[in-house]
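Q: Given only this backbone (679 positions), what sequence would you predict?
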């Protein structure tokens, strides 16, 4: 049985999906958290339900990409049944989408989710009366604890057997006459009306839905149907004195209002909700934005203060493991491979796992409580000043974790120019892969202020993304930003289970990357730094390294990066960074520990690598700062570039690479130029 789980954003749809299937997906309280279909299997009696979690939408009139994904799935894939997840605390608005699902002709079951919150607010819903009014089964559920899921599955099974989509909403005699005429015209083309339900298509044509009008091109009678719909819209405009889309919307809400009046009873309550009390403080006109920046600063301070201890423990373990290998294995290629390629390459990256865990733990708590939606609202006016949109906030925040999901989250933006502007701004956010590079360089050359330096680089990325957007909006992306409308969900206590799976998912992705991409790259880089072996000449470690393939590549790119103060070793380290930024750390670990058959004085551990970097006469705090700036701005990883290509097209992916690479070189050069004046 093919089941589509759909509904408005913030209706608790993904929580209910997890409760139904046992799948562990990220759950957030902001619109657009689900930007792709997610599937899960649930066995129920003699049936197997394949449940697809669709993006949260407000209407089947599609504007944003997530709305297109949901609507096209329902039209093209034709699931056996739609489970519409309704927010019981905002029933009238949620029923608007439910009526559109019914018009598709697919059996519909309504899940009255968050029923516990509705009762707490004095909203009492008689599910039986509302079910009779709408003609569809309705079941009260609480997605966060799985309450009502068994009853929901029973209703799904029963509804699928009946095949009824419920009562169609009535739009009044005049509108219904227009709809009947259009339906008859559409049904003449049997193939077209089989693919697109005639009732739904007729309503969309009267609403002047451009996507529905384009679909008429698939029918040989499309032009005559389009002309008939245009004539009907003109008649409605003259008869009602307003656009047909507005008339249909008013009729829907009139129908919903009547159904709600019959089935919903509200008990007056004098209590001020906890959400209102908290918002009076956190959403204060003057305090809200400073408090948000204070929260973000606190997260980074906490990350580096607490994370410093487990990071040092892991570094000590890496050093001890290297020493053990050095003692038990004879000097030679095998020892060099294990110490430099495996322990030095992968170990140096894995030692930063505690920082990743703490950072994602804090961000996950903010998301699941509902604070992130408030942050988007608070920053809207600020973002508009730089040509961004309030809904750009979530992709930018997600960019601190990984650019790929952040880029995909831009699908919630309806304006193409707003989407492109946000897509080009996201890579300037310091993703988790850049963090090990910052920590390494800041710890080596700014030991007393490492946390502050790293936070300054993060802040520089944010400022740079804003300034870059201003430049782009005045040049290649001219145009007005669209207005920002956002629903603020109530504050909710995050569940331990939800937080755990969110943090585990991100940490596991990081560990998998270290065990696959970083491991493979470390082995390749070790080979590049070891071979070919010189037949003659001085057999010093440095000479062997320069003679190797890595040394030759580094010498080749050195003229291009020398103005930035970078030596050829940094040039070698930056090349694999296009694949993954963590590889800079592992590459430097190999380069500063390679050459000899053993471990080169302990440089294989992160702590030893910091000492090796400080001992290099070509390295100093200014060069380290220039390198951090370059890494901050340089093109994102290949996966991010591929995502930009899929989301915005090849032109913008190529633009991102050229633009960010040129900007990285220019800014690093300016930092060195200005910094040299004070040294």
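A: Predicted residues:
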């Amino acid at each position: 049985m093919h089941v589509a789980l759909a509904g408005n954003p913030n209706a608790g749809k993904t929580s209910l999906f997890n409760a139904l299937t046992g799948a562990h997906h990220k759950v957030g309280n902001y619109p657009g958290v689900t930007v792709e279909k997610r599937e899960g299997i649930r066995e129920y009696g003699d049936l197997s339900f394949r449940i697809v979690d669709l993006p949260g939408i407000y209407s089947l009139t599609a504007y944003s990409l997530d709305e297109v994904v949901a609507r096209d799935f329902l039209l093209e894939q034709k699931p056996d049944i739609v489970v519409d997840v309704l927010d019981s605390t905002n029933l009238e608005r949620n029923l608007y989408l439910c009526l559109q699902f019914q018009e598709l002709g697919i059996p519909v079951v309504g899940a009255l989710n968050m029923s516990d919150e509705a009762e707490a607010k004095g909203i009492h819903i008689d599910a039986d009366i509302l079910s009779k009014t709408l003609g569809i089964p309705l079941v009260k559920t609480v997605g966060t604890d799985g309450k009502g899921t068994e009853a929901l599955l029973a209703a799904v099974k029963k509804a699928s057997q009946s095949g009824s989509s419920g009562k169609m909403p009535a739009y009044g005699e005049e509108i219904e006459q227009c709809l009947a005429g259009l339906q008859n015209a559409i049904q003449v083309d049997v193939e077209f009306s089989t693919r697109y339900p005639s009732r739904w298509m007729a309503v969309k044509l009267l609403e002047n839905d451009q996507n529905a009008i384009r679909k008429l091109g698939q029918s040989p009678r499309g032009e005559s149907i389009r002309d008939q719909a245009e004539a009907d819209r003109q008649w409605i405009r003259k008869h009602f004195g307003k656009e047909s889309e507005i008339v249909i919307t008013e009729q829907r809400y009139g129908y919903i209002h009547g159904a709600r009046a019959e089935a919903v009873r509200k008990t007056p309550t004098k209590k001020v909700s906890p959400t209102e009390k908290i918002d009076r403080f956190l959403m204060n006109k003057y305090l809200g934005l400073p408090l948000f920046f204070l929260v973000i600063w606190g997260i980074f301070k906490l990350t580096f203060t607490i994370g410093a201890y487990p990071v040092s423990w892991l570094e000590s373990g890496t050093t001890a493991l290297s020493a053990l290998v050095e003692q038990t294995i004879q000097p030679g290629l095998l020892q060099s491979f294990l110490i430099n390629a495996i322990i030095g390459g992968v170990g140096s990256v894995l030692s930063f796992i505690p920082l990743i865990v703490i950072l994602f733990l804090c961000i996950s708590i903010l998301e699941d409580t509902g604070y992130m939606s408030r942050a988007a609202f608070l920053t809207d006016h600020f973002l508009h000043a730089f040509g961004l949109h309030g809904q750009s906030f979530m992709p930018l925040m997600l960019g601190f974790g990984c650019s790929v999901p952040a880029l995909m989250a831009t699908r919630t933006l309806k304006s193409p120019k707003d989407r492109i502007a946000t897509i080009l701004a996201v890579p300037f956010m310091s993703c988790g892969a850049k963090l090990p590079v910052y920590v390494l360089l800041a710890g080596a050359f700014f030991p007393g202020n490492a946390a502050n330096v790293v936070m300054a680089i993060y802040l520089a990325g944010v400022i740079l993304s804003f300034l870059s957007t201003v430049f782009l909006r005045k040049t290649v992306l001219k145009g007005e930003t669209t207005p920002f409308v956002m629903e603020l969900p109530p504050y909710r206590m995050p569940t331990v289970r939800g937080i755990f799976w969110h943090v585990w998912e991100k940490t596991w992705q990081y560990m998998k990357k270290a065990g696959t991409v970083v491991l493979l790259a470390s082995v390749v880089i070790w080979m590049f730094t070891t071979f070919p072996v010189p037949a003659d000449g001085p057999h010093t470690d440095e000479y062997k390294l320069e003679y190797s393939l890595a040394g030759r590549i580094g010498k080749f790119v050195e003229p291009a990066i020398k103005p930035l103060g970078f030596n050829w070793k940094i040039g070698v380290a930056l090349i694999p960074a296009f694949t993954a930024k963590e590889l800079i750390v592992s590459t430097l670990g190999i380069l500063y520990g390679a050459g000899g058959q053993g471990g080169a004085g302990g440089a294989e551990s992160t702590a030893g690598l910091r000492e090796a970097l400080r001992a290099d006469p070509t390295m100093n705090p200014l060069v380290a700062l220039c390198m951090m700036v370059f890494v901050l701005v340089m093109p994102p990883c290949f996966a991010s570039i591929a995502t930009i290509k899929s989301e915005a097209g090849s032109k913008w992916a190529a633009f991102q690479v050229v633009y960010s690479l040129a900007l990285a070189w220019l800014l690093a050069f300016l930092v060195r130029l200005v910094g040299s004046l004070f040294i």
